[in-house]
Amino acid sequence: MDDELNTRLKPLRDRIDALDAQLIALLNQRASVALEVGEVKKHFNAPVFRPEREMQVIARLQEMNAGPLADEHISAIWREIMAASRALEKAIKAAYLGPVGTYSEQAMHEYFGQSIEGLPCPSIDEVFRSVEAGAADYGVVPVENSTEGAVSRTLDLLLQTQLTIGGELALPIRHNLLTQNGLAGVTRVCAHAQALAQCQRWLSTNAPHLERQAVSSNAQAARMAAEDSTVAAIAGDRAAIHYGLQVTNALIQDDPHNRTRFVMIGKQPTGPSGYDQTSLIVSVVNEPGAMVKLLEPLARHGVSMTRFESRPARVGTWEYYFYIDVEGHRDDPAVAAALAGLGEKAAFLKILGSYPRAR
């Protein structure tokens, strides 16, 4: 049996080995060209990371793809190839909500690739500060969750910062209950407040006796569980591996389709990719019909609104800022005309950025 199996597999493995040799040669040729691109960019002081260009490369390859690899496989493979090429040009650092093992870290790697240098931060505020101060090139921050809604602190900081949104990622959130060695002796479960909320039905049904304690991040909860056998943590696979914990119960989120949207913040505006989104903040004068009048330019120029979120302005009485996402890039003629119309009608308008939409 083994001899026959090996006889049949050997020519196939030989073909794979030959193809691998061709692939490694081609990948290194590609890397050499990327280095030449880096030299040209350096001469013109152009940014190393161009998310719109990388989106276009992946979209073009997916159009060429005839299988059997799925489009998401093509995306994952080329994202790492481009990340490695970027690292040859220049080391890029991204700040994220730490410690190691958070979903923010996972989002960072899925967006930028494994070759990015991560800077874990103790708070969302510190992520913004690190990018503003130049300690990191980019920041990765959660902006909304499909179950719990907007991340209020991120919205408040986007209002205040001079940084721009340059990209987004929708990350599936898969919560696990992590312990040192099962639930025996465990008295409390720790997690970020949003994670506790996203798992409250499961916890009430399966672990009603456990005290629930909110901490700064799920990775911090995993660190606590690794140090204290009476603590269970809610976190992802990355945290379980990093902190050496056991997955006592997997996929405990109440919504099986739970996702968190992350945005990438930085100082460099992003050019059009052909599949873009523009985020902005507006406020209106306090008069009847003001919001209808404000949004009229979007309808007039055929610009679709994909998100509308309100936040108290914290000045005056019953005044709000409205966070809006629209389809298209600010340089697109229709979007530019709509934004000009908004600017004429709004009491306040801030464009947070135009960037490739998450596919």
List the SSEs and their pairings:
Blueprint: H1 2-43, H2 51-64, H3 71-89, E1 93-97, H4 103-112, E2 117-121, H5 124-133, E3 138-145, E4 149-150, H6 152-160, E5 164-172, E6 176-179, E7 188-191, H7 193-198, H8 200-206, E8 211-214, H9 218-227, E9 231-235, H10 237-243, E10 246-249, E11 259-266, E12 276-283, H11 290-300, E13 305-312, E14 320-327, H12 333-345, E15 348-356
Organism: Paraburkholderia sprentiae WSM5005
Protein name: Bifunctional chorismate mutase/prephenate dehydratase
Subcellular location: Cytoplasm
Features:
globular, alpha/beta, chorismate mutase activity, D-Maltodextrin-Binding Protein, domain 2, 5-stranded mixed β-sheet, 359 residues, phenylalanine biosynthesis, 4 domains, 44% helix, 6-stranded mixed β-sheet
Mind explaining what this structure looks like?
By secondary structure, the protein is α/β, with parallel strands linked by helices. The protein folds into 4 domains: 49-90; 93-173 and 259-266, D-Maltodextrin-Binding Protein, domain 2 (3-Layer(aba) Sandwich), CATH 3.40.190; 176-249, D-Maltodextrin-Binding Protein, domain 2 (3-Layer(aba) Sandwich); 276-356, 2-Layer Sandwich (Alpha-Beta Plaits). The chain is built from 12 helices and 15 strands. The strands form 3 sheets. Strands 1, 2, 3, 4, 5 and 11 form a 6-stranded mixed beta sheet that branches. Strand 3 and strand 4 (149-150) form a beta hairpin. Helix 11 packs antiparallel against helix 12. The longest helix is centred in the N-terminal third of the chain and has 42 residues, at 2-43. It is globular, with a radius of gyration of 24 Å. The protein starts with a helix and ends with a strand. The model has no long low-confidence stretch (mean pLDDT 92).
